[in-house]
Amino acid sequence: MMASSKLAVFTVVFGVAYAVIYVISTEVNLPLLTYHPVIGEVDFLWTPERRGPAMYWYGWMLTSLFGALALGWIASAVPEPWVQRVILFVCLAAVAYLLFYTLALFIYDKATVELEFLKSRSLSVVAALVVAALVVAAAISFFAPAKWNQRLWPGWVCVVPIGALAVLAYYLTPYFTR
Amino acid sequence: MAFWTILLIIHGLLAVALLGAITHQAVSVWMPVRSKAGNFVTRFRAVPSTSYVMAIIVLYVVTFVMGAWIYTQYRFTSRLALEQLRFFKTVGVFEMKEHVATIGMILLPAYWAFWRQPLSEDYAAARKNVTLLLAIIVWANFLVGHIANNARGFGS
User: Fold this and answer.
1) Quick one: which of A178, A162, A170 has its CA closest to A16?
2) How many percent of chain A have pLDDT more than 70?
């Protein structure tokens, strides 16, 4: 089986990495710069608004750009099966985390006693969920058929951005429920 | 204000051109014509899809950059008005528009790689899927932009 071209590997990993970093940047608010449109000034990293609203979108894009370029470059330099394994692992971990967190909220709703810690996004709960998700993802990745990991699946460049859009849409639900 | 209105109109016209190009390509790659072109619909499907690639990339990038520029004005004029009028759903879909546009932008390198000549059979499925996703993104953003502008556009 022929390996994918370096260019294809770079572009696929760039798209996947950008989508993931962009979601994290928007959620945690990690802009590389802040733009103040009323006064037309740019600040490095995150700064609060000054005389009018602050815009972080450009900063999120820049953060994601540099992260994705670095990961794309690394991915095009390492063996292709490793890249495929890492992406599969991260995607499984993300899905597992989503399932665990949904399950935690379901138990919180159905429980007859108050289990506030399940609803909170405290570090310990998130850490437990992340560890559980990583274990599940590692187990599935380890037992995955070998042919799954021989080449980088180009479909990741569609699947991961669609997932990222779903998460971003979820974060915007307050606009539609107030 | 006239400057921003002109910029918005150019942004809209570029979006129309992009919409036409990506729709043509998506239809031709998902429903290719096997026989000689006949009626309008068949001819619409019969375009050479590879010839659209660079035009789509250039149009997307230019439309995106213009949109990102206009966005600075929107942020402290139209958006504030929309919030004061409690048009939160309109603000929400416009927030989604910026994310969707970004995701479309990051698909372009892979889109270009998959459509490079000679076309690789290995990427046939990925080529079709990325083209379709890009078409959906362009359509979604075009409609959202139109709705947001109707709600509280420049000059209103």
Assistant:
1) A162
2) 90
Residues sharing a CB contact under 8 Å with residue A41, sequence separation 6 or more, in sequence order? A35, A50
Residues of chain B with pLDDT under 70: 35-37, 44, 152-156
| Interface pTM, i.e. ipTM | 0.90
How far is CA B150 from each of CA A9, A151, B101, B113, rounded to the nearest angstrom? 42, 47, 19, 37
Q: Domain coordinates of chain B in residue numbers?
A: 2-152
Within an 8 Å CB–CB cutoff, is residue B112 touching chain A?
yes
How far CA A43 is from CA of A23, A67, B22, in Å, comes to 21, 20, 37
Q: In chain A, positions 53-82, which contact chain B (CB-CB < 8 Å)?
A: 53, 55, 57-58, 61, 64, 68
Does any CB of chain A come closer than 8 Å to the CB of residue B75?
yes
Task: Residue A132: name the closest of A178, A101, A156, A157 by CA.
Answer: A101
Alpha carbon distance B13, B55 (integer Å): 14
Residue B119 contacts A where some CB pair is shorter than 8 Å:
no
CA atoms of A154 and A160, how far apart (whole Å): 11
The minimal CB distance from A155 to the residues B109, B116, B129 is found for: B129
- Does residue B77 sit at the A interface (CB-CB below 8 Å)? no
Which chain B positions have a beta carbon within 8 Å of A18's beta carbon? 106
> Between these two residues, A148 and A23, which has the higher pLDDT value?
A23
Q: How do the domains of chain A map onto residue ranges?
A: 1-78+156-178, 79-144
Most confident segment among A16-20, A86-90, A171-175, B149-153: A16-20
The percent of residues in chain B predicted with pLDDT above 90, rounded, is 60
| Chain A contact present for B91, CB below 8 A | yes
Task: Specify the amino acid at residue B31.
Answer: M
Interface A-B, measured as beta-carbon pairs within 8 A, has a size of 97
Q: Give the orientation angle of helix B53-76 with respect to helix B2-30, to 10 degrees.
A: 140
User: Residue type for B82, please?
Assistant: L
